[in-house]
Design brief:
This protein is an alpha/beta fold. It has 15 helices and 14 strands. The strands form 2 sheets. Strands 1, 2, 3, 4, 5, 6, 7, 8, 9 and 10 form a 10-stranded mixed beta sheet that branches. The chain has a 4-stranded antiparallel beta sheet with strand order 11-12-13-14, covered by helices on one side. A hairpin with a 3-residue loop joins strand 12 and strand 13. The longest helix is centred in the middle third of the chain and has 31 residues. The chain is globular, with a radius of gyration of 22 Å. The N and C termini lie far apart (54 Å).
Length: 481
């Protein structure tokens, strides 16, 4: 099939199944497959999460069949770094991926000399000593597939068997057919890019979401351009929902639904100010749904979940030994009903600016306890990394940036927030700390850091952040060191 690469022949895999009794589905009947659906730049916006004017019936159906995690967070709000946390169970300051790297979508054996010598590929990568989820699954005898992108390196640590640049139900059916031939349990990382800018252009197509009816985040001015942009984002989520539905239908038709664990998740918040590349709630909060064998059905949990928790959880569920160094906790007791107390006291976000440019940049950390979030920064006068898709209209169709800049006198608060994100170009002043009560202020519009009645919360969260710095050996910031 077009756009499909297989780097392992079926005959070799079949031979491996014969040689090793630990490999092969017939000897691992109680080990489920794992379908991981990762939707890019998708924050906490779904029908089942209460987003106005958004219809996601197939994802909502998946949530009803399993467990919906309403307080789930990535630990770094950009693609490569978020994937690295998922694949290593370690925070970015340890796992080595502290910004986006290159996407060499191929087996390691097919990298060219120029690709192997690429600066970003060599600087932003997972160190050899930390096993990845893909390496662990490979050693356990899983057949491994990925669609659309890998976007993390080195490629040797991500030994997928099946690659497809295309992402659709036909590709999924081809993967299922190939996996069934091997008689191995399988893992597929199914990346959905439709929620990543550029979205469908409302000037050229009729969107499924009416711009006149959407409710804008309060940091976006209520203008036709911003309404259209937000509607285009929601429209992309509805496209994602239909893609998820086609996967579920194909899985049902294959007869493997009952033996497959399904995970649906966003890799970080959407491409807006305070979303992507920003440690605000809008950047770190993501949807997380898990369904399948042994997973509670029809449950909703508000337990605090860090992305670093996922690798130890999957390894526990798949009965694979966990690495000696972990930053996360296993959520297996929570997801299977063994305990309702599993989870975390806090969730943590970190952002390292200037890494791609290889220059000293701003450092950001965020800590959230289920109600209050403290954001801590160092080097606030230095570069803050801003992705092109947060700025450009020509390639990425971001209508919001230019709209706010053009109308900054009319919407000064929106411009102030935008200028803090693009601080060098727009000369924004960035505060060293911010404090928000998300129980009353979910969009973080009212900073409480200078309000003395909230000093106790500020000091409590700062002390917890210092403890986290010590426990995870974060030497990249001065706090606590």
């Amino acid at each position: 099939m077009r756009d499909i690469i297989t780097s392992c022949c079926v005959s070799c895999l079949a031979l491996l199944c014969v040689i090793s009794p630990s490999v092969g589905k017939e000897s691992q009947d109680d080990i489920p497959n794992l379908l991981f659906i990762l939707s890019e730049d998708l924050g906490g916006q779904l029908g089942c999460l209460g987003t106005p004017q958004l219809q996601t019936p197939r994802i909502d159906e998946l949530a009803r069949s399993g467990i919906l995690c309403r307080e789930a967070f990535v630990n770094y709000p950009v693609c490569s770094a978020s994937k690295a946390v998922l694949y290593t169970g370690l925070y970015p300051h340890t796992n080595g991926v502290m910004q986006n790297t290159v996407n060499f979508f191929k087996p390691a054996s097919e990298l060219t000399a120029a690709e192997k010598n690429n600066d970003l590929y060599n600087r932003i990568r997972v160190p050899d000593q930390y096993p990845t989820l893909i390496e662990k699954l490979k050693s356990a005898g899983f057949y491994l597939g990925v669609t659309s992108k890998v976007h993390i390196g080195p490629n040797e640590k991500f030994p997928f068997d099946f690659y497809s640049k295309a992402t659709n139900a036909d590709v999924f059916r081809q993967f299922l057919n190939d996996a069934q031939q091997t008689k191995q349990p399988w893992f597929l990382m199914y990346n959905i890019s439709e929620t990543h800018r550029p979205w469908r252009n409302g000037d050229q197509v009729k969107l499924t979401v009416d711009p006149e009816l959407v409710e804008l985040p309060p940091f976006l001015p209520d203008t036709p351009a911003c309404r259209q942009d937000w509607a285009e984002y929601l429209d992309s989520i509805e496209i994602c929902d239909r893609m998820v539905g086609s996967l579920l239908d194909a899985l049902d038709a294959s007869g493997e639904r009952d033996e497959t664990m399904i995970v649906f998740m966003g890799d970080h918040g959407p491409c807006y100010q305070r979303g992507k590349v920003c440690p605000y709630d809008f950047g770190l909060r993501v949807p997380l749904i898990v369904s399948g064998p042994g997973i509670l059905a029809g449950r909703v949990t508000d337990a605090l979940i860090n992305e670093v928790d996922l690798m130890p959880t999957f390894l526990d569920l798949l009965k694979i030994a966990r690495p000696s160094l972990e930053h996360g906790v296993s959520l297996k007791p929570l997801w299977t009903g063994e305990s309702e107390k599993s989870g975390n006291d806090y969730v943590i976000g970190e952002v390292h600016h200037g890494v791609q440019q290889n220059v000293p940049g701003m450092k950001e950390r965020a800590i959230y306890d289920g109600s209050f979030q403290l954001i801590y920064r160092e080097n606030t006068n230095r570069l803050r990394s801003v992705n092109d898709d947060l700025i450009q209209f020509e390639r990425w169709q971001n209508r919001v940036y230019r709209e706010i800049v053009a109308r900054k006198l009319e919407f000064p608060e929106a411009f102030r927030i935008l200028s803090e994100i693009d601080n060098i170009k727009l000369k924004g002043k960035v505060k060293p700390m911010e404090l928000y009560d998300l129980s009353k202020d979910p969009w973080e519009m009212h900073d409480l850091v200078d309000d003395p009645q909230y000093d106790e919360h500020q000091q409590r969260l700062k002390a917890a952040l210092v403890d986290w710095v010590h426990r995870t050996k974060d030497t990249t910031i001065k706090l606590g060191n």
